Amino acid sequence: MKATKTLLTTAAVAIAAGGVSAEEMTIVSWGGAYSKSQLKAYHEPYSEKTGVTILNDDSSNEAVAKLRAMNEAGNITWDVVDVVASDAIRLCDEGLAMEIDHDTMLAPAPDGTPASEDFGDLIVSDCYIPSIVYSTTFGYRTDLVGDTPPTDVCAVFDLETYPGKRSLEKRPINNMEWALICDGVPKDEVYDVLATPEGQDQALAKLDTIKDSVVWWSAGADTPQLLADGEVIMGSTYNGRLFSVIEEQNQPVAMLWDAQVFDIDGWIIPAGLSEERKQRALDYLRFATDTQRLADQAKYISYGPARASSAPLVGKHAELGIDMAPHMPTDPENAKNTFLYNYEFWADYRDDIDAKFQAWLAQ
Fold it and tell me: Do 250 and 142 contact (CB within 8 A), yes or no?
């Protein structure tokens, strides 16, 4: 999806009303329902509080490549970037993201617990500020799957029982893991197998069996739209996007939680910003990642907040009035058969497997 920039009108109003000097910052995220949840939970409140104009750029899926190019050109145009954990590790290792002192730069919990303890093990990089726990999973059209709706992720590979198009993300992550699981590899051996050329070939061979029936997506909003339009029978995307199409749009879609892949999303600040831009980015992130703001985001999308102190504050959807807890990927009923994403593996192997995957796609 082409990157878009949207000026938050609330910021313009705040600047006009308060006479605050007009400042701008570009925040990079994923677009769609997710960016809407960020806008409601913390972009708009921050703009109203400070008068800073926020420009939204929906380029997070290209963050690593674009930050590499910006760094090489010596022109960093982004101020804060939302990335998945494995990309944060890569950016930090390459010196493209600023290291964060979580306890001095971020707000403590309301009871005084330091941020590093409140986020805990979700801080997987010295440059990373986690914001949400989400999963990548499958949605399917309830009116197109017949009398036996899928309960197993391997239904994606079963063209006989579930004929029709399916949508998969146009990258190896998650697809390679699901392919190996559905080719008989035990879940606890998937990454050992995937680390070998033979294992990579095995995953691609399994994906070959459905390649002609796949619509490849790049933006998280693609699969919900494809499902809503009836163009695919099932497809992968982020659980919050499926929540939106099911609960907010009332489409004939259901969630397939089996082998959902847990992951973390959060923030980095690009290295190389001027001191003024760096301080503004830090001020924004201190605000946007405090206990209340992360809990507020869960009012708009079904992602679990990354701070332990936020969890008890998660309540009902801001507009629908439904309890959000059962829609979280971490809900015990939904988390019966999860697959744990290996951040370190993909930080180490991403570039090589990406090249192999793209070459396979082009065949």
Answer: no
**Distance, CA of 29 to CA of 79 (rounded, Å):** 11
Q: Label residue 272 exposed, middle or buried (CB < 10 Å: 0-12, 13-18, 19+).
A: middle
Rounded distance, CA 246 to CA 146, Å?
19
pLDDT at position 280, please? 96
Q: Which two tokens stand for residue 262?
A: 């847990």
| CB-based contacts of 38, cutoff 8 Å, min separation 6 | 27, 29, 82, 288, 297
- The backbone torsions φ and ψ at residue 312, rounded to the nearest 5 degrees and listed phi first, read -65, -15
Residue 20, pLDDT > 70, answer no
What is the Cα–Cα distance from 225 to 288, expressed in whole angstroms? 29
Tell whether the model's pLDDT for residue 335 goes beyond 90: no
Tokens at 83, concatenated = 């990335």
Q: Among 191-195, 206-210, 326-330, which is the least confidently predicted range?
A: 326-330
Instruction: Assign 51 a pLDDT band (cuts: 50, 70, 90).
Output: very high
Q: Please check the confidence at residue 81 and state whether its pLDDT lies above 50.
A: yes
Q: What is the pLDDT of residue 3?
A: 37
Across the chain, mean pLDDT equals 91
| Cα–Cα distance measured from residue 84 to residue 264, given in angstroms and rounded to the nearest whole number | 6
